[in-house]
Amino acid sequence: MGNKRLIFLMVGLISFFILMGLTLGNRAPMTWPEKFIKDSVSWTQGLFYKPAASIAGFFQDIRQLRVIYEENKTLKLTLTQYARDTQRLNELEAQNKRLMEALGFTERQRQANVYTYRIAEVVTIDPDPYNNTVTINLGDKDGIKENMAVMTVDGLVGRVSQVFGFHSNVQLLKAITDTDNNSKAIAVTVKGNESEPFGMIESYDSNTGELVMNKVEQADTMKVGDTVITSGMGQVFPKGIEVGTISSIGPGEFGITYKVMVKPKASFNHIREVFVVEVPEVK
Question: Locate the Rod shape-determining protein MreC beta-barrel core domain: which residues (predicted)?
């Protein structure tokens, strides 16, 4: 029994060394059984390797897509913040320019009139196209009163129509009409004209965007291009505020007076800052 075990062990060792020699030793080309076995093993490994590689590549692509998504999200947030900062910068630059112009305006006006100019910001604009009203951030606590004239650096834009504690409504010149009992016509004259021609701006022509000046005597001398200013005779608008320039002169009602079209100096659109004109009270 012991001899048989020894024989089996020796046969096993001999077989092991023969196999080692066939695979590692320098010998002649492989026989066809060896080639068959090697090809079969390689083909079998390929069947498992390709799907495994594809699955691994798929999960790698998913991870890569996730990284790209996060990077894209970060870039979008950065771009949005940049756009907001750029817009804010542009707004601040525009506001700074307007305030510099306003400062220069107040310095010029200080030499011309004894009025006090209270600068205010427009906080809301009435969406009703027929109302033509804006709201400013000055009110009763700031000493604002109804019928005070309101202007920009370019010229007259309207009057204070309602006053509240912390804000006021401003009625634009476009809303002035001779049939509106809530509005008041503007008594005007021509700047630098010694004859001081007189007229009343009573309405607004929405087709041409011009103010209509009526009750101008035919004897009054004026010409296209003259600057129209408030005369101070209406007891609402103080004297000397520029309103616009004469664009045309024609016959008025019944041919007795002139009808003068005045192009406003100030724009009624995109108003940002205004001046409320405070006239000292006569004691």
Answer: 122-278
**In contact, 234 and 98? CB cutoff 8 Å:** no
In a domain, 98, yes or no: yes
Asked if residue 154 belongs to a domain, the reply is yes
Q: Is the pTM of this model over 0.70?
A: no
Looking at the fold, whether 84 and 216 belong to one and the same domain comes out as no
132 — alpha (psi -120 to 50), left (phi > 0) or beta? left
The CA distances from residue 257 to 52, 70, 84, 208, 249, in Å, are 99, 75, 56, 21, 10
Boundary-marking domain end, from 60, 80, 112: 112
User: Which CATH number does the domain housing residue 129 bear?
Assistant: 2.40.10.350
Alpha helices in the chain (DSSP H): 2-24, 32-112
Q: Do 141 and 63 belong to one domain?
A: no
Domain identity same for 72 and 119? no
Do residues 152 and 134 touch, judged by C-beta distance below 8 A?
no
Q: Supply 283's token pair.
A: 């004691």
If you count them, how many residues does the chain have? 283
Question: Tokens 């800052």 label which residue?
Answer: 273
Can you give the residue range of the structural domain that contains 57?
A: 38-112
Domain assignment present for 6:
no
- Pairing type for strands 199-205 and 149-151 reads unpaired
pLDDT, tens only, 99-145: 767 666 655 555 456 688 888 999 998 877 667 899 999 999 999 99
d(CA 244, CA 212): 11
* End-to-end CA, the chain: 144
Q: 253 in a domain, yes or no?
A: yes
Tell me, yes or no, whether 132 and 55 share the same domain: no
**Residue for token digits 């509106």?**
180
Q: Which of 163, 127, 154 is nearest to 273 (CA)?
A: 154
